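Example 5.3 — Small ribosomal subunit protein mS26
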Amino acid sequence: PGWCPRVVPARGRKSRHAPPAKSKAERVKMPPPVDPEELLVVLERYRQHRLELSALLAEFRAEVLQKKREERLSGEDSAELLAEHRRLMAWNDEENARQRARREERLRKEAEEEKRRKVEVAEKQARKMEAFLKEKEKEVLQLQEEAKSFITPETLDARIEECLDNPCNYNFAIDKDGRVVKRTVLS
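Solution (predicted structure tokens):
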């Protein structure tokens, strides 16, 4: 009563990570030889047996169902059952027609909604493309404006002269407020 095992060991089984026994380490398991002709015969016989069994079962089921149907219809209230069955089938047909009409209406609305959504997406895509083209056109015009001030081989000498005449000193220090604190003199 004082000691209770937490896991009951399974007799005859080793853990998954345990190696095989030393006496079984070199053993190669070979399946028993099977005669191919005999295997084909046995398989064919099993297939034939299963087919015959399934055919017999289907026959018995049909027979039992037929007997039940005959018993039900041969009762004294078979006319009432037939009338009830016809009434229920008529109600079922009406319900199916109503559900079909609802389904067709729903599918039509979904198709219209999908068509409307596709048109909206196409219009939105067209507007986006138009805005993109306008933006690219604006960028091209801006680049053309900037290209007027580019240095070309023809204007290279004039730009060199202009830079030599107006020297700019980039050697200075800035404090935390952004003011120039110290500037060196150009030499």
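Remark. The radius of gyration is 47 Å.
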